[in-house]
Specification:
It is a single chain. The protein is α/β, with parallel strands linked by helices. 36% of the residues lie in helices and 10% in strands. The protein has helices at 14-22, 58-70, 90-99, 115-124, 137-144, 149-163, 186-195, 221-239, 287-293, 295-301, 303-306, 309-312, 324-331; strands spanning 28-32, 75-79, 103-108, 127-131, 172-177, 199-203, 262-263, 269-270. Strand 3, helix 4 and strand 4 (127-131) form a beta-alpha-beta unit. The protein starts with 13 loop residues before the first helix and ends in a 14-residue tail after the last helix. The model is unreliable at 5-9 (pLDDT under 50).
């Protein structure tokens, strides 16, 4: 059993994070290829569907990866701002990243993975994370706004398993947002993922994009607290994984602002998908200059000393600073306390 959690360490060590922060470097980078998507997920942060104007070319994508390497990046996360499998040169992008000896994770809605493509991903050594919000067809299809999504995801999971996922060299995960529609089934979904050796990434929802048009999705902090505590008990008693419940991620925490950034499909540099504030554009400046000179990047790089409100005095703020995206979308201030956090003094 592979556990994720703040009791078990993070993806990068505190020493690596401190070193990257001190030199305005990177350890990971999130990369959007296009906003084109075949679904219309009602919670989508990017309101994706159609491509943005003048999206990055393959040459520009390769150049930004090379710039990130100069900044010390170790991992590239190919995001589903849209659906990456609809990007015609996806395999070229993955080949290029892997040729640079970097780790790569691919986030996909999981509706387009054929047996042949699953085999190609396995041979490349790509980690896969599928957006799965329910094991019930009606709920999954509703949240994706497309009938047949549940069946397509299951077909993709079968293809990935037949290709060899998951094993020690090939991570398979699911990404799940917490909402009213799937709330009651999340303990069983968590157990299912753990038993399948699938890494569950269960997280609170950021109120941006299409989610702002769907208040029926929202879950209150007190209800979130109950769920997090229930999942922590399940993990400890049934799977030997121990962690402290706190938002925004179940069994983990966000520290990406200290060592990462997001490149949108038109070249804007954002601190993360939730804090969709442009720090600059790679067509106008080098990435190193953007990270060094951007006010929003620098304030979030030093989030633990800049954070405000309840988060500033929280007992666990040495390793948690809530969700900066949710704070920004709700309050307009990315340094504000996380409005969804129940850990209040």
């Amino acid at each position: 059993m592979t556990c994720i959690g703040d009791q078990l360490g993070m993806e990068f060590s505190p020493e690596e994070i401190a070193e990257a922060r001190s030199r305005n470097g990177l350890l990971s980078m999130e990369l959007e290829l296009s906003r084109t998507c075949n679904l219309g997920c009602v919670y989508c942060y990017a309101s994706s569907g159609k491509p943005l104007e003048n999206e990055l070319s393959l040459a520009e994508i390769e150049d930004i990866v090379d710039q990130a390497i100069q900044l010390g990046v170790k991992k590239i996360i190919v995001l589903g701002g849209g659906e990456p499998l609809l990007y015609p040169q996806l395999l070229d992008v993955l080949d290029f990243i892997i040729s640079k000896n970097l780790v790569v994770d691919l986030f996909t809605n999981g509706t387009l993975i054929t047996p042949d493509f699953a085999g190609k991903l396995y041979r490349l050594g790509v980690g896969i994370v599928i957006k799965m919000n329910s094991r019930k067809a009606a709920i999954q299809d509703y949240l994706a706004d497309r009938e047949g999504t549940f069946a397509a995801i299951n077909n993709s999971l079968v293809a990935l398993r037949e290709a060899g996922y998951p094993d020690e060299e090939h991570r398979l995960g699911i990404q799940t947002i917490i909402c009213r529609q799937n709330y009651d089934e999340l303990p069983d979904l968590w157990r299912w993922a753990r038993r399948q050796e699938i890494v569950p990434y269960v997280e609170t929802m950021t109120l941006q994009g299409r989610a702002t048009d769907h208040p029926e999705l929202e879950v209150s902090p007190s209800v979130l607290k109950t769920l997090f505590e229930k999942l922590a008990k399940i993990d400890a008693e049934e799977f030997g994984c121990n962690w402290t419940p706190h938002p925004p991620l179940v069994a983990s925490q966000c520290a990406r602002h200290e060592y990462s950034c997001t490149i949108t499909s038109n070249g804007d540099v954002h601190p993360c998908p939730g804090v969709n504030v442009s720090a600059g554009n790679i067509r106008e400046q080098k990435l190193a200059d953007i990270l060094t000179n951007s006010k929003v990047i620098q304030e979030l790089r030093n989030i633990r000393t800049n954070i405000k409100g309840q988060c500033a005095v929280c007992d666990i703020n040495d390793h948690c600073y809530g969700c900066r995206g949710h704070a920004y979308q709700v309050t307009g201030d990315y340094l504000a306390a996380d409005p969804l956090c129940w850990l209040k003094k």
